[in-house]
Amino acid sequence: MKVLADLHNHSCLSPCASLELSPSLLARLARERGLGLVALTDHNSALNCPAFEEACRREGLAALFGIEANSVEEVHVLCLFGSVAEALDFGASLRGLLAPLPYDPEKLGDQVVVDADEGVLELVDQYLGASLGIGFGELCEDAAARGAIVIPAHVDRPMFSVSSQLGFLPAGPYDAVESLREPPPALTLGLAAVSGSDAHYPEHVCRRPFVAELPDGALGERGEPLLEALREALRAGRVRPSWAA
Questions:
Q1: Helix (H) or strand (E) holding 49
Q2: What tens digit of pLDDT does each residue of 10-64 get?
Q3: By CB neighbour count within 10 A (0-12 exposed, 13-18 middle, 19+ buried), where does 216 fall?
């Protein structure tokens, strides 16, 4: 079956995202705009994934739980897990690697952890937009070793990408790459390319989804079976990004 999917979305936890974009609003807009599979990938943290899981359950959406991690070179990479617990565990491992930059919420933006009903649980006081003290290659290897789907983010973007920061895509344990438009072969290494909305505001939700061909019944699965069904589709190239429509 063909599924409209989007694996790159932020919530009010990301300092550069709108405070309006709670996990519950993200899930509701995703359903209203036709997504069947959606992931939450806040910057360097998974603390809003518990609320997102509950919100997606209410909306009848299949969900994955992730992080957009920022390597020491300031290359962004999507790390996606089948369970909230795995995403939170990975996020906890990254917390101590965050550069200890001075954090002023008035200048850098609030970082709000909420529940599924938009109740405020915590205001994170460590800047989540900073780079991590770990190289891109090691970061990808660590995420892959934990069972994550690993996707270098917006590889053709002029900032925070492998092309802007490294000048090339090194070999690594990737399942696909994400791009804004059809990427040159040097930025895919033969892997499938997907599009992603990189949603930071409500109006961004579902702006650049992709179509994935998944086995019948895959969206009824949760956790590892759903993650592996998507991984197989990505590696087999059974995807169509928005720019190829």
A1: helix 49-59
A2: 999 999 999 999 999 999 999 999 999 999 999 999 999 999 999 999 999 999 9
A3: exposed
Tell me the fold of 2-244.
Answer: TIM Barrel (3.20.20)
**Cα dist from 8 to 126, 167, 180, whole Å:** 22, 22, 12
Strand partners, 177: 193
Q: What are phi and psi of 225, to 5 degrees?
A: -60, -40
Query: Does residue 23 contact residue 116 with C-beta atoms inside 8 Å?
Result: yes
User: How far is it, in rounded angstroms, from Cα 109 to Cα 9?
Assistant: 17
Q: The pTM is what?
A: 0.97
pLDDT attached to residue 54: 98
Beta-strand (E) ranges in 91-221? 112-114, 120-123, 149-152, 177-178, 193-194, 210-213
Residues 6+ apart with CB under 8 A from 95: 44, 45, 126
**DSSP-derived pairing of the beta strands 193-194 and 37-43:** unpaired
**With bands split at pLDDT 50, 70 and 90, how would you rate the model's confidence at 4?**
very high
Q: Tell me how far apart the alpha carbons of residues 86 and 105 are, in angstroms, rounded to a whole number.
A: 28
Cβ of 228: how many Cβ atoms within 10 Å? Answer: 15
Average pLDDT, the chain: 96
Residue 192 tokens read as: 């499938």
What's residue 77's pLDDT? 98
3-state secondary structure of 2: strand
Tens digit of each residue's pLDDT (9 = 90 or more) over 183-239: 999 999 999 999 999 999 999 999 999 999 999 887 777 789 999 999 999 999 999
